[in-house]
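Interim report, section 4.2 (structural modelling).
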Amino acid sequence: MSLDNILTNWSRYRKGAEEGGFHEYEHQWGMVVDLNKCIGCNACSVACYAENNLPVVGEKRCGKNQAMNWLRIERYWDEPDLEPYNATPSANIDAWIEGNPPAKKAELRPSMPSSYLPGLLEEGGQSFEQRVGFNGTKGEFQDFGASFLPMMCQQCHAATCEPVCPVAATYHTPDGLNAQVYNRCIGSRYCSNNCPYRLRYFNFWSYYEDAWPEPLHMQLNPDLSVRDKGVMEKCTFCIQRIRVAKDEAKMENRKVIDGEFSTACVQTCPTGALVFGDMQNPDSQVSKLWSYHQVERGKTKQNKENKELRGYRVLEGLNTDPSVLYLERVREV
Amino acid sequence: MKYVNEKDINEEIKWAQINTDILQSLQNPRKAYWVAIAVCLAMLSCAVVAEVYQYQTGLGAADLNRPHMWGLYIATFIFWIGMSHSGTLLSAILHIIHADWRKPIYRFAEAMTTFSLMTAGFFPMIHLGRMWNLYWVIPYVSDRGIWPNFRSPLVWDAFAITTYLTSSALFLFIGMIPDLAICRDNVTGWRKKLYTVLSLGWQGTDRQWRHFRKTYMLMACFLIPLAVSVHSIVSSDFAMSIMPGWHVTSFPPYFVAGALYSGCAAIITLFILLRYFFRLEEYMTVALMEKTCKLTFAIAMVWTYLNLVEFGATWYGHDPVAKEVLISKFVGPFAPYFWAMMFFGSVLPFALAFEKLRRHMPTMMVVSILLNIGMWLERWMIVGPTLSHAYAPEAWNFLWPSIVQWAIVFGSFGWFGLLFLIFVKVFPCVSMYEVKEMVFHRRREAHAEVAEKFHRRAADVQQATGRPSVEGA
Amino acid sequence: MSGNDINRRDFLKILGWSGVGVAVAGCDRPTTVTLEEGKEEVVAYLQPEEYVIPGVGVWFASTCQQCPAGCGVHGRVREGRVLKMEGNPDSPINKGKLCQMGQAGVQGHYNPDRLKKPMLRKGGALAEVSWEEALAALEQKVGPASGLAGDRFAWFTGTVSGHQSVLLSAHLAAMGSKNHFIHETINNAVARTVNQDMLGEAMPRYDLPAAKMVLSFGADLVGTGSSPVHFSGEYAKFRTGATRGVLVQVEPKMTLTGGSADLWVAIRPGTEGVLALGIANQLLLGDELKVAGLPENLRTLITAYNLEKVAGITGVTGDRITRIAKLLKERSPSLVLAGASVEGHAHGYQSAAAIMVLNIVLGNVGKTILPSGSSAFPQMEAKAGGTRDLLALADAADKKALDVVFFHGANPVYTAPAALGLTDKLKNIPFKVVFAVHPDETAMNADLVLPILSAHEDWGTHMGVYQPEQKSISIQQPLMERLYPDTKGFGDLLLALLKARQVKEYESFADYYGYLKNAFAALPASVKGDSISDEDFWGKSLQKGVLNIGTVAGTLNPKMVEISFPEFKSDAPDYYLVPSAQLGLWDGRHANLPWLQEAPDQISKVVWNSWVEMHPATAAKLGVKEGDFVKVSSAQGAVEAQVYVYKGIHPQVIAVPMGQGHEEYGRYAKGRGVNPLKILAPVVDAKTGELALYGTRVTVAQSGRREVLVKLMGSETQLGRKMVSTVTASVFNRTEGTKNVT
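Predicted structure of the assembly:
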């Protein structure tokens, strides 16, 4: 039976390779993040800590970048699209993958200003931290707000983390999720190295030992485990909530209703910038938003009829086919 | 060129003389030997302590972080794998093309291969978050029908390395059988028992020789493609990823070249050490040194070329992110190490181009070690910068490896040294029977009729220890 | 919005059980059936508590106590333990949403450093004592026998509302004292006064969605405003309306709200009012706007502030000013708001008034500034505080005018500037009683510390400081049984205190729970709605968590006030100190919640510590870079922290966030970072007497030390990757503005 097992798995891999992804999905959980509404307030992030038993690692380990913030809000000072001469390069990665190189002059500029060359020329002797440091806008002041970007696991359908795991501890579920099996993980950390978004977090220590001193541990959510050192973890789209909803639907012998549950971050978002749902259900809010913004799954290059629609996926050009759709930030200029 | 007609080896040397010279290397270790052993043990214990600590506290102790999920462990792993290449690969190639100058130096080179593989093997384990589950990488039939992920280069690694280890160990052993027989006949006590078992009842009969030659040649042919594939697979750990600076087409040949390079450098180092400590000037001659150096120089140039190819491809390619990584290597936090690598790897080898330097052992000693440091840095420069500067700007940072990582890397050299030291005292580090072949052939070339005379076995019996020698020409 | 339904559905499950709260309060320890390292005994579920369904989480309604906004929450309870907070969709304030502080509420409840026993000061040191002893001491000092009465007794609290407020007032009355000091460091007291004077209502309703543009002078609406979650929701509507609203933020240091601005303008602190007048000046040019009832003196004042003058004073370039004026003209109705950075100066009132003038000039009053009316129960409405009472306390203590002070919900010892010398002056108060959950600085300086129940264990009713659409009472019920047997409910203690004074009025109430039930029963039928009985009404109220008590409509009648500004002297060599407030640690009360310590500051992304924000130009002048330690010193003291450099701050401003630098307050807060409040100069707003938080001048010096600044952000810029991509509002309006996309 083990042999059949491996053979069927193998044919699945092959099918996946040939037909661009696994197909018999029960659900395809997806998300939409409207950056026009996002104010970067952190509510989603802390809600995630509360829901998913994320350990607090303390200042020292934060300093070593060993924090476990599954959902982090990235804050950037520059907004290339607002500066006309930067507009092309901001699409660089898409451009080069799509085979049409950006204009020679523009090619380097976006990655350079805050990067090393000026660091070498102007501010030599600076530490690494400053070389990649400030100067969002060209002017004297930050003339517009910051650019906040909530980043949770993008649940890619062509996930780069999946094929490289030696023990298949991370794999694609019939729910369209990119699952991480803690018990199977041996901690080779290849998946995290191969995640272009750097959204996989590793248990470098036995965080639980000092994260929940009595009686803080009583807050831990019994619906999911507390992870020990040596395993990789990441945002699961609150899979425990998904489970409950699916089970209930099954018991009541119906389909999961759109909006009957949502992930912790989506539930709490004060501005409602986050939307969660099943993309296989055409009536779900997410499906509508995806189709409205003319973004399709399984495509490297979206050919929108209306180019002005805001939908895009982060680093889409890498063809990871994420399940999270971002709606571009809007600014009055 | 005044050394142009220099001999690789003095063909007048007596066969019995060869036996005695080599066998004395197996006898009564001097103080220096024990000191060396002690040093190696000390180094090793550093690693053991560090590893125990890391095992208990977790990999945070190594100051790995997000995004630096891999660190010195993987770099050093590649380094040792690379080191393992010259020995077996060169020995096999030279064997096939009948380059007989290999004969005096291939034995310890092969030993080096085997031991550096045994060292390399530790690093993937050390670097695992949950090393106690390492065996899950092996495809064994479990009642749950759970298999490793055959798409993962790490699984390929596991196969490649184990295969390479076993076969190179075999190659080393088979090549040693006739010598083991010689040892068996020349020693007493526990060694006698040991060699009796290991020499598999070698009598030097024609039939045995015939089979021996066939097997040996077969192994050689099998090993060459294997060795090449092994390091190509190691390179695919990186080339198969999508990370900028890793996702490079030229990585497999680049890795193989680098491997041969560091291997040759290591051969030079050990060559000099053995020649000096075991007084093997007779066999490990300056002429051979020269040949090895020339070979190393050639490989160094290949490596340099492949390096430049990679830079050029990235610079003129349209991947701004990969370019960012490259630039960060040039001027970023890794810059000092990067330029050190470029100097040691591409500039320093020109020392090998000068005859005077080539023939000056102390210089070569220093140079060869520096070359290997450069090659170690190269591996680090492959792993490090890409992780610091990949796609996600949020995750841009730099974390210096902790003392734990350094200690384990340091200790790995102790482990290697220990194995090698034990080897040279237990097994002949120069192949006696092949040196005899070499001498024999050279004699024939030199003056056929004399050779004819010498070739009679009786002549030997007088001069040898009295017992009939069984080297069986 | 998705996510609300689950709560509703879960409520169906428990609809049958009226008075769930009683059961919760009555449930006993062992039912928390988890093997915590074998410390707890496992009790089989043979006879489980009526409401406990093993493995099933049940949601109970309550009220968030993390800030005065008073959001309604649902607490998820499983096996008798409260696990997670979510917004209560029935609450008109937060509509099912919650901010990070609300999420972290549970950590205040489960905090390992909570006060577990009463403490009495014996021979200089606080010692744990039994409740008997504690209450005896209390009786002896404040009981009828003590003869204490009148204004020598005082309450010092944070914002209070609901029935606690009622009882508290009753107690003050019983004591015959009028001294109720109400202190909030993060407040809008000055703006309230201005509103009261100019509109006739302290807290009018700001209709963001109706506004086509918001010009905010340092008003941190979605951050440290009077109701963060509510305004976040409003903000979303404001941004997605038929035509997307424009947000222009004018402030010395970028706040969270500023972080979302379309146009962010750095201004020299204290000159906001001038800018407002300057903008009004631009608007009135050529009398394009005919403004009824604009007094002549005001008109002359406005005309006096012409472009050059204003630009000179504020440091905002002329074209910026004209552009803002232009925007305001184009986008009517608009909404102009004044925030902490406006209020926190000696002439804060004037500036806020000038800004309100701008509103009137623009004719926003009645369009985007609406009357919020009042409730039928004024005695329950939130008593919002400020910093004036902090000064008052210090003053009274200095004059030895107080014998006994009860502290609750405020931490003056931490928030008071060193210049006030409060810690010493408090020594003049013979008996200080602190009702506290956590061992904060004030508690450690008290003579008697009474450990009270956490917000998740206690009963109560609350009204938010900002009651937008409809006035409502939010009910706070226990979400689990008390963690520590030796802690008592605040309401219960208040009741006990009252019983001691007025036996017959209050003897009928067994406890605060009984009192509340009774009070609910006494509510008018209009509030009770279709409930068939008091029990039924009580049960329904607990399940809904929010009680709509009807709104008495109000009116706004704008009137002008005298405005005069001091002479602004141009650049002094030293810097303005901005003690910035952050949605997270708030005024320092949340520094003991690890989640909020590890949640990075939204703007700088720094965690677990204090930092000093400065402009690149300033940094260059001082020769410092990110991570360098600098010493920020005022006449009143100095603090030292690491530098964070960015462009969202005025070059003459040094911003140090408040919240850190605790000397007590448990393992997560103690001895971490610095407290900028300590080095504030004792400047007050002339008109209102509020402490001028932004009125301190400081010097900055490099202290030589440097470490990597611990922040959860690598590169500050996108480096050309398409991480955040942007479109212009015109595009947005074309594609989505008019349409309603799901």
